[in-house]
Amino acid sequence: TVEQSRANESVFMFSRWDRVTRTLEALEQCGDPPAATPEVSITAGAGVTEGGDATFTVTAVPAPSAPLTVDVTVVQAGDFGVSPGSRTVTVPASGTATFTVATANDSTDEADGSVTVTVGVGSGYTVSASAAAATVAVQDDDLAPPPPAATPEVSVTAGADIDEGANAAFTLTADPAPSAPLTVDVTVAQSGDFGVAAGARQVTIPTTGSVAVTVATANDSTDEADGSVTVTLDVGTGYTVSQTAAAATVAVADDDDPAPPPPSADPVISIIAGSGITEGGDATFTVTADPAPAAPLTVDVTIAQTGDYGAVTGSRTVTVPTSGTVTLIVATTNDTADETDGSVTVTIGAGSGYTVSATADTASVAVADDDNPPSPPSSKPSISVGDATAGEGDGAVEFTVRLSAASSAAVTVYYAANPGTAMPYADYLPDWGRITFAAGDTSKTVQVSLIDDRTPGEADETFVLKLILSDTTHATLADDQAQGTITDND
Length: 490
What we know:
The protein is built from two helices and 36 strands.
């Protein structure tokens, strides 16, 4: 203390105690140092089951010299009846406070959740940077509701085949088995006439999941074709119908003797056609008598053709032998005309000693044309040159060369004057060269110079102007030469 330091100073008379005394006096004048501001943190207790209290501990370091009010915020994840929002916690001078957040126990199955408490900024304390919030896990304790019962799928299977008069057996199955007897709608049908009570009916499947169904048939004395009984599941309430076993069929065999055969009747004549042919081939047909005749049978037929293939058309007869079958051949010719494909048709006519089939009384063999169609006209413009005449004293013969239509590109054609009765250098100068039709041009002229020979009494003479087209990309030659006539003027 200051007093002790002064006493030491007077006893020991050391100058150092004077410095200690002054230091202690200065400290007394300053008073006690200010207390440090507490840092508040929060920790969580153990996890709880819904209905329990979530526990948290709030700690102030250093402990406050007086009770300290701390602001906190409560939130929940899930729905556990927590009262969320702001509240305060008072930390006593001991430095630690425990508080709880109540949860509610409901009967709803839900995901587990949590309760979180966060320390808020307040007066007289700071918030821990690493422990500003804490979370208590909350576990749901409710069982999930059982899933709804599956809707039974109903199928039907057939028993063994039967003879008429026996019962057709079927089995209806519900999967899964129903929890209570299940009424199923079905439709019963028959093929043939076996006394079946056809139509809609209902079948009850017990909780075992399966039930047998019988459909009675009647035993008559009529000979008839075999048939069947079919049970089909219908759409109803409380079940679905199997996609693969919605119907089942039991075959029913007739047990009656067949009726005696009718008296022998006239043979029924039918005709079938052979394969299609190409013009020039033979169209083949097969004529059949059923039953086969006891003696050769003459049958009337009519032959017709579609197109012009040289077939001999009209009426003729065919003799069916006792074997019951004969082949009829109709020849065609091969021409050079391109024409549409056609056919040869043979029709059975009414006659004596037979009847004509109602379904096979006529047959046709397709005939294919084998000639190529004519080449289509060229879409290119064509070049032609016209004849020309001039007197030998006129100086030249002028030819006109024409393009049938304007071309979009230049067209070049070469020409040469060739001798006829007129001779080069005697009657004309042997001219040659080329002319070009520019795009859009359709007419050009060529002049061949003449020589006036002054020979009296000679006949008119001729020569030929020949055109040559080396590139046919943009044009064709329609008329490649013209006659030049020189009339005598002597």
